[in-house]
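Q: Entry one of two.
A:
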Amino acid sequence: MVHKMTCHQRRKCCQFSLILSQVHLQVDDNNWRETKFPDLATKFNFLTSCISQLNRDIPSSQLTYLTCIEDVYKYYTTPVQRPKYIELRPQSLPLNVKIVMQSIKKPLNQT
């Protein structure tokens, strides 16, 4: 079965190949996604280029899991889902956070 790439995925592939050429990371053309980072400096340079060119930060909690180019590619092709605060269940919030649905207004002349 042949996997068809979406337009978004093709664009990401092109961006990744450009970043790879800028970082001077040696990759096999057929298996470029399987390429592991040879050292931390190369990983840092590659991820820094990705962040600046793809306009999406990588949280420090994810850095350990990004061991090869495939991991970084999957991270950047996964859509970002941002929950609306109103939709969050109280159970999922930290104990020190409380959402008040009604706004509280103070009179302007109150000091």
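Q: Entry two of two.
A:
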Amino acid sequence: SSGINAEYGGLNQSHVGQHASDLLPHFKATSKKFGFNVCGEGGEFESLVTDCPLYAYKIQVDKSEKVCHSHDDMAPVWYEKFEAVSLVEKPGLKDLGLRERIGLVSKLGS
């Protein structure tokens, strides 16, 4: 999962903090309209990965707020300010080495 920081025309406050996978349909539509890079490679947005199969712990955002950094009429810049976060242990992964976790991920893809 990841959090989105909106920095481009077509993105706004409502997109901040959402998962990139949930926003993919909007990203594709915005790409056609504005030339938006759906991977964010042009600085259209920033993301933070909070969990993946290799992590023994996930980052949990306990409290946050949306902040407008730039009130530009064409492309205001919004971000999520984390006020409280915690690490949540994922059962069975803490004692595994990285190679073992990679092996588990590989099995998931099979």
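A: Comment on entry two: The mean pLDDT is 83. Residues 20-34 form the longest helix (15 residues).
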